[in-house]
Amino acid sequence: MSGVRNLLVCVTGASGAIYADRLLRAAASQVERIGLVLTPQGAEIAAHEIGWAVDFEALEITGPPPNVMARVRLYHPNDLSCRYASGSAAPDAMIVVPCSVGTTGRIASGLGDTVVTRAAAVCLKERRPLVLVVRESPLSLIDLRNLSRLSEAGAVIMPAAPPFYSGPQTIEQLADYFVARVLDQVGLRLDHPGRWGG
Q: Mean pLDDT score of the chain, rounded to an integer?
């Protein structure tokens, strides 16, 4: 196990749910506890793209493999009483994947009105790793300024730009290679064939 024992993964309303799926699969073997939050828009897109089904009332999700879900606890996106909304219970690291530019704008503005935005604010103020896997193109000047503000505040901005030099044969491999780079940013370094060999 790495130094990251408690990871928060958030899925927001942008295309790229496969990154969240592959990240959970990779992190489950490395992290003791994974908190998972999906916004309603994130859940809708995940249902369309990868077949996840989220029941916000029962706090249940189907789609990820059972061995992965054994390490994951799903939280309601509006439950500001959850552990991740408090600085005294901040996660060791937080990854928003995919991260919509609407979400980046709300985080950059200091709006802590949902678990995603509040937990991000907690990570920034507690100096915990916060990685935003931004999925949008093109980016407006407003988007760029928000991303700049977040970078200055300590967030890592990672546009969803997977590598092709390793010759991936499947979409899953392509996503896995990118996810490994995302996990690098929070200290979870996985061995995989997509790393540059020189």
A: 95
Asked if 7 contacts 33 with a C-beta cutoff of 8 angstroms, the reply is yes
Please state whether beta strands 33-38 and 72-75 pair in parallel, antiparallel, or not at all (unpaired).
Answer: parallel
What string of DSSP letters covers the chain? --S--EEEEEE-SSS-HHHHHHHHHHHTTT-SEEEEEE-HHHHHHHHHHH--EEETTTTEEESS-HHHHTTEEEE-TT-TTSGGGSGGG--SEEEEEEE-HHHHHHHHTT---SHHHHHHHHHHHTT--EEEEE--SSPPHHHHHHHHHHHHHTPEE--S----TT--SSHHHHHHHHHHHHHHTTT-----TTS---
**Residue pLDDT, tens place only, 26-54:** 999 999 999 999 999 999 999 999 999 99
Residue 187 tokens, joined: 């200290």
Q: Can you list the domains of the chain with their CATH numbers?
A: 6-184 (3.40.50.1950)
Tell me what pLDDT residue 197 has. Answer: 73
Q: What is the pTM of this model?
A: 0.96
Paired residues of 54 in beta bridges: 61
Alpha-carbon distances of 79 from 32, 40, 97, 117, rounded to whole Å: 22, 13, 19, 12
Please state, in angstroms and rounded to a whole number, the distance separating the CA atoms of residues 125 and 104: 16
Give the integer Cα–Cα distance in Å for 170 and 44.
24
